[in-house]
Amino acid sequence: MRSLSGNVGGLDLQIPVILAAGILGTTGASLRRAALAGAGAVVTKSVGLLPRDGHPGPTVVVLEDGLINAMGLPNPSFRGFQEEIDVGRTGPAPVVASIFGSGSEEFAEVARSLKADAFELNLSCPHAEGLGAEIGCQPDNVEQITRAVKRSVDVPVWVKLTPNVSDIRALGLAAQEGGADAVVAINTLRAMAIDIQSGYPILGNSFGGLSGPAIKPVAVKAVYDLSGVLEIPVIGVGGISDWQDAVEMMMAGASAVQVGTALMGGYGVFQEIARGIASHLDRKGWTMEELVGLARRRVA
Amino acid sequence: MREGAIGGTAARATDGVIKEVIVESDAVRTFCFQEPHSPWPGQYMMVWVRGVDEIPMSFSGPDRMTVHAVGEATRALFDLQAGDALGLRGPLGNGFSLVGEKILLVGGGVGVAPLAFLGDEARKAGMEVTSLIGFRTASDVVLKSRLEGLGELILTTDDGSAGVKGFVSAGLAKVDLEEVDQIYLCGPELMMWDVINRCRSRADRIQACINRYFKCAVGVCGSCCLDPEGIRVCAEGPVITAERLLEGEFGRYRRGPSGSIGSCQG
Ligand SMILES: Cc1cc2nc3c(=O)[nH]c(=O)nc-3n(C[C@H](O)[C@H](O)[C@H](O)COP(=O)(O)OP(=O)(O)OC[C@H]3O[C@@H](n4cnc5c(N)ncnc54)[C@H](O)[C@@H]3O)c2cc1C
Ligand SMILES: Cc1cc2nc3c(=O)[nH]c(=O)nc-3n(C[C@H](O)[C@H](O)[C@H](O)COP(=O)(O)O)c2cc1C
Ligand code: FES
Prior knowledge:
The structure holds 2 protein chains of 2 kinds. Chain A is built from 11 helices and 14 strands. By secondary structure, chain A is an alpha/beta fold.
């Protein structure tokens, strides 16, 4: 099988398929399990300064072709979390700590206090007041926070962007300006579902973020747009369930992909995607370099 | 996309209209729904008490659940009557599997609920059923007559106000385990841990229905993952062979809603 290994955003990855933030990333054991199942890297649940229980249930709505979630950033705080990261790092893949905060100082403090192979800044969660996308939709904030974290740590820093803006490129450029090693796009799209029997919004938080196959075309366009203006790598996430989705995302310009909602179907998804990409490259006689961004070169 | 990657239809919510509420004890009630589901014993549903929370509940029969009021959502459930409705997602998870000819049900508190359902199915399959059930005190005893109808029943209470005095493990001495093909366990974690420890040599023949903090209930959020393997209890459980519970967090600690580690009492 063709090797898919390479360096993406400062991390050496055996395969360019990564466990997305907030998916089975609460415990070290589940992170390790994803790594053992073949993930090229694993991203933790987002952690912050203080413990949070998250929003009341229901926390998810399962749709035909997607999932709306409003977990509400539950986490035990960075203090309780180093041990989980350490267990995760006993697995065969690098562990990326996803962190959040209310501003640059909080982000920097959390980052300084944790030891991980890389950081991913959650500037994009759509359903937590004063956090995530609420600050991450301003390019100034993105740049400042990225710079503050870069100054505080000596490992790669990835910045995860929200699609809930009119032009995601401005956020990507701000992250690059702040010194990011890669951007990750996209987080979930703001969404809501209402129970027609009772009229209640279904989610405990009333609204949440849409993920899964339904958002893939939106993610592909965001990655296409970002990779057109950025020099740093773009990591594509949103609706990837099989190797065909991953290949499409890479053609849009993603150097690696992350997989979230598709884990509902089990841990086998990492190897399935990696094998599928490799045999597609074999069939076509392409290299990874030729695959990434192919769509733009086709229309250039 | 792949078939089944976005859950089955069971993962989507339906409206469950309450047909009848049965008072089992001061703190325990059974809620029967107008429409039966098609669960297998050990499976559960996520019960949405609108405006309050969504919580996991085992099926105590194809059309029912048996609830112990312990906090906000379960108390809010107790305000509901016949004709009121709940949002239901389920049946979810993997239930018990029936093995052998002679089985032993071991339950504590409201943990007897899924076992009574399992006992019904075991009798239908022609198996011999013995039940060993424990409660704090006589007034806490629930589902006794339903279990008595299935076969031999041994009852224990911590204070001796009914049946044998002592924990469930005291009743274990009254059963010839050599005769039993499979043990089915459900109850407070430390009670289950005690039974598993006493029967370590037969851990491969014990199926335990366990609790963790469930949020998504579809195997993506990570809230319910069990050390050291990272078993997703909501999707791969909640019934797990005791062999896989021996060397990990079970009986020692568990994580709460934030993911921080706490005690597994209660
Ligand atoms: C698979 C499974 C099957 C269950 N079956 C039954 C049953 O048949 N009958 C029954 O009475 N109880 C059952 N429970 C326990 C029941 O879910 C909790 O008692 C209920 O969630 C308490 O909610 P509350 O708001 O009333 O209490 P709270 O005040 O919110 O919490 C009280 C305690 O309940 C537990 N709890 C709260 N929310 C959850 C949650 N989302 N997931 C897991 N535990 C939680 C915690 O340990 C907490 O400390 C089951 C739990 C699981 C995981
Ligand atoms: C249940 C759930 C929890 C999530 N938690 C986080 C989180 O903590 N931090 C974060 O940056 N993104 C989080 N996300 C977003 C995902 O990482 C991902 O960006 C999004 O789901 C799109 O990818 P997918 O379609 O493959 O799921 C979460 C998504 C889901 C479904
Ligand atoms: S409750 Fe979310 S993975 Fe089990």
